[in-house]
Amino acid sequence: MTRLWKGMGIVVGAVVVLIAAFVFSAWAPDRTVAELAPRWAPPPSQFITVNGLAMHLRDEGLRDDSLPLVLLHGTSASLHTWDGWTKALAPTHRVIRLDLPGFGLTGPTPDSDYAMPGTLAFLAGLLDSLHVTRAIFIGNSMGGAVATSFALAHPERVAKLVLVDAAGYPMRSTSVPIGFRIARSPLLSALMRKVLPRSIVESSVRNVYGDPSKVTPELVDRFYELTLRAGNRAAVSARFQQAPSDSFSNDIKSIHVPTLILWGTLDHLIPLENAERFHRDIAGSTVVTFDGLGHVPHEEDPARSIVAVQEFLRGRP
User: For the domain that residue 229 is a member of, what is the CATH number?
Assistant: First the structure.
């Protein structure tokens, strides 16, 4: 019996050492905006306070454009996801992109409210601060849901929509990034507020690319470091609980603005069938698909995916 207890003690001790080693190697405390800003918010980044929240944005391109483009990113992303498209669009348009509440350098809301009405209020407030009364809204994934909801809540302010692998309907995902699965688990998400293996972030980013070999260390750095922004890890978990992406799906038929729907055929998070649902519900909409691209075609292949957008924008109202 003594040998048994001794053996069990060795095993338990080994397990404790392994857990301690894991926690030590993956320990990832919050980082402040001041720490992150030099790398992720150089000019032309700016911060505008809306309803008590300092929102990170970039306002670029033509200053006299009467119909700006507003670019909205997806879950756990940031305004940087639009770098490629902004470079192509800024010479001929005013391009406004922002970190939505709970993400990027904008970070958590003062009251931890991430339901859609609150997000729309922040967006409307920001546009008011920029003196933008009407715009063309472009959104990917969660950002597509925000753009669609904004069109429903403020139809007079939306001239056109571009929905890029957008959320909005129930999703029958065939593959979900591990980071999203962790964020939906109260226990695991609580743990990840203190530890965050970089490998989890890398796996999650690779999961949404049609060709994972395109995911660079620099891209993983961006997602990893901005996830560590103080409050973001708790915010993404709260958003999953508070803001179901399909809560407004029955109202989408009420949208009556020119709409372009873009989709990667290898999107395993929001399958291509959802593009057809948007197309069916939004009268007069157009669908363009990209073979070989995944959930973020604007980021994975900006040169290829921007062409349809530029053609769509030439017919501006």
Answer: 3.40.50.1820
Residues 308, 194: one domain? yes
Distance in angstroms (rounded) separating the CA atoms of residues 226 and 308: 30
Rounded Cα distance between 167 and 81, Å, is 17
Structure confidence by residue, pLDDT tens digits, 225-247: 999 999 999 999 998 888 776 67
pLDDT given at position 316: 52
Residues 7 and 98 in one domain: no
Tokens 């999203």 correspond to 180
Side chain identity, residue 36: L
- Domain coverage including residue 25: 1-30
Distance of CA 48 to the CA centre of its chain: 20
Examine the pLDDT at 16 and tell me if it is beyond 50. Answer: no
Residues 92 and 142 in one domain: yes
Q: What is the per-residue pLDDT across 141-164, written as a single tens digit (0 to 9) for each?
A: 999 999 999 999 999 999 999 999
Mean pLDDT of 178-196: 88
Residues 24 and 70 in one domain: no
Look at residue 1 in the predicted model and tell me its pLDDT: 55
What pLDDT score does 19 carry? 34
Tell how strand 286-290 and strand 259-264 pair up.
parallel
264 φ, ψ (degrees, to nearest 5): -85, 130
